[in-house]
Amino acid sequence: MGDTVTGMSEDTVSVARLVRPRSYEEAAAAVRDSGARGTLPGGPGRAYGDAARNAGGAVLDLTGLDRVHVVDADEGIVLCDAGVPLHRLAGVLLPLGWLPPVMTGDRGVTVGGAIAADLHGRDHHVSGSFCRQVLSLEMLTADGEVRTVTPDTELFEATAGGMGLTGIVLTATFRLLPVETPYLTVDTERAADLDALLARMAEGDHRHRYAAARIDLTGRGTATGRGVLVRADHTPLDALDGPGGLRDRGTRAWRRLQALRPRPLHQRAAVAGDVWYRAAPRARTGEIRRLSGFFHPLDGTQQWGRQWAQQWSRPYGRGGGLVRYRFALGHGREEALHRVVGRLTALPGPTLPAVLQHLGDAGTGWLSFPLPGWSLTVDLPAALPGLAVLLDELDAEVAASGGRVALAGDGRLRPDLLDTMYPRAAGFRALRARCDPRGVFTSDLARRLGL
Amino acid sequence: MKDAFGLPQSLLVLGGTSEIALATARRLVARRARTVWLAGRPSPALEEAAGSLRALGADVRTVAFDALDPESHETALGKVFAEGDIDLVLLAFGVPGDQAHDERDPVRAVRVAQTNYTGAVSAGLVAARALQAQGHGSLVVLSSVAGERPRRADFIYGSSKAGLDAFAHGLGDALHGTGVHVMVVRPGTVRTARTAGRAAAPLDTTPGAVAAAIELGLRRRSETVWVPGLLRPVMSALRHAPRSLYRRLPL
């Protein structure tokens, strides 16, 4: 009771009652008993922004409901509780030759969170976001009933990316990704400016499963938008055993010793300035890396979000932590992307690298973020002078170019731009009014944006 | 709901004709604030203030509120909170009094104390409870540097602000961890229309500067804000000055 739920960056603090149901019945009872300030399904609170907060109300922590019910290892389908973290699911599935359909940098993300944010990974251009792989959901709706929801229904489309505002996902059945080994074959290359980077990504991303570039925001002038492009594919089994394969590289003891090497600078998340850029290889192909090291570069740091925030905000004065800014722009809008990167580059001081990636086809979710084109993600210290105004101007630029800002991680979007960025937001509101007239499910994000 | 920069979307101003409060409201309306409630004694000045904020695009409503009538505070403020969440309550009412005159007229001196202190105690507690129920929000209390150490020139006003300052300070501690943030703002002498005739002093400030400091304090979730910031070390020194010396300072 009375536990503070603040999310990843302690920017706007609000307090909710934390309820941790041990069974579906307890969850249903909590929904039926929710007070005037509503209930929000939540997990470990890994979201930036205010999507996982519900001031004065209750947050239902579903991490206690975390059973993997059925794994169909032949077809590659799993049925599990929403509270299962993706990295634990990966641990269960990998020996069977499967992976969750989307893997992301933060290993704490749960299946429920992946549905609520319609999670996309670095393979979005190939296989889309999480909800595309979902076959059915069991949802606890505002009336306290449990329903089975399938992808062709309105409720499913509102729930995919719906930030937990349509109901509580209890279990999900979804398709998995087949893999042969726990390794990835990684190609790394440097691009001297944004044009070169975009050209290479447009030309070659489709040949790889994973592709993302980190942009060095300290590069100015002709170096604006320079970055390191990393693309990877799952390593097939024969590549490990063949000549030159992983098992061919020295004795077993030597390989173990090699694994203890510190991670190279360009693969680390929190290296300041352009050090990581200069440390990256100009062009390297065929490097074999472990899945965990590739997907979770931030491991080994507990509560890294907060530590990062403190570390990076310090030079700019007190308060605020990090603000995440993630937006998508359609194909053909590279001009707008140039302008945004130019303005971010002009920010003072050391900045964390921005992540640029290709997005594939949009999903069916009404509030789902990805649209075919590009997405850029950057974490900025809230204490940067004038940042609030700058981001508002970038919002206007993005909205005018038909793009959108991601709701997962957002803590600052202007409510009047929401309907421009998400044309189906009006339908979302109407569905919520119909299915949840008492307003049982709500969050700080919903209050701020008038969802 | 406040955004990641602590900028509020809805605002309740207690003392809706205060120049500092209106400068703050204008600044916040230019950012995110869409709903503004101006609470004060019904008067043409209050309606004029509402009109000026409406012109900036805000949805402004006025509500009758009298600091000298604590019994009515629960009803008046309850009505506002019943209409929706309030992200920021700005407790800005207060009267400067007239020191020379009030020293000879105890009844008027008591009215200064009742407006600035006891009225604020009642309104502050009512607002704090409502904010606590919604689980978020900021209560910004306009104190004064005059409350830090009493001066011969305005100790009646100063003592009322000292009481208010202590009250807000304690309230902030009481609400710590509830999601509600209490911020005490201690401006120096503020140049307003009322003080236009006087000569400028070195640590004077303006309503606009106080508004800017409030915006910064909201982002940082500061608990005490001095305007200008230099007042903090200056007052720290003055607070420890021996009384015989302090009495002779030209303050």
TrEMBL record, chain B:
Keyword tags: Oxidoreductase
A family per Pfam: adh_short
UniProt key word Zinc-finger: no
EC category name: oxidoreductase
Gene3D superfamilies in the cross-refs: NAD(P)-binding Rossmann-like Domain (3.40.50.720)
EC number assigned by the record: 1.1.1.333
Coiled coil: none
GO molecular function terms attached to this record: oxidoreductase activity
SUPFAM superfamilies per UniProt: NAD(P)-binding Rossmann-fold domains
Family: Belongs to the short-chain dehydrogenases/reductases (SDR) family.
Protein name: Decaprenylphospho-beta-D-erythro-pentofuranosid-2-ulose 2-reductase
Species this chain originates from: Streptomyces pyxinicus
